[in-house]
Design a protein that fits this description.
The protein is mostly helical. It has one domain. It is globular, with a radius of gyration of 13 Å.
């Protein structure tokens, strides 16, 4: 069972990284090959939220807060909601639900 959980965690972590880079992307670097790791530091927090069953709204709020307070860009709630929706869908897929 532990190996299966590790596979699920790895898969969800990978998908989380992709969603943050390609969908959330608050500074618009998704098209830059050298910026592929720009949001990687946010993956552990978001992954933990997904594993804990956080709602889409909570994840969107978390991403929006990071965009505004940590990154310093204006309100981008639409991007945060789209990313949270995709993350929730990946969580369901990885969990098999």
């Amino acid at each position: 069972m532990g190996a299966r959980e590790s596979e699920q965690d790895a898969e969800l972590g990978l998908r989380c990284d992709e969603v943050l880079h390609y969908l959330w992307d608050p500074i618009g670097v998704a098209g830059e090959p050298g910026a592929r790791d720009e949001y990687r530091s946010y993956v552990p927090e978001v992954l933990a939220m997904l594993q804990d069953g956080a709602s889409e709204a909570a994840i969107a709020d978390h991403l929006q807060r990071h965009a505004a307070e940590t990154i310093g860009v204006g309100a981008q709630l639409r991007r945060a909601r789209a990313a949270a929706r995709a993350l929730a869908e990946w969580r369901a897929w990885v969990d098999g639900t």
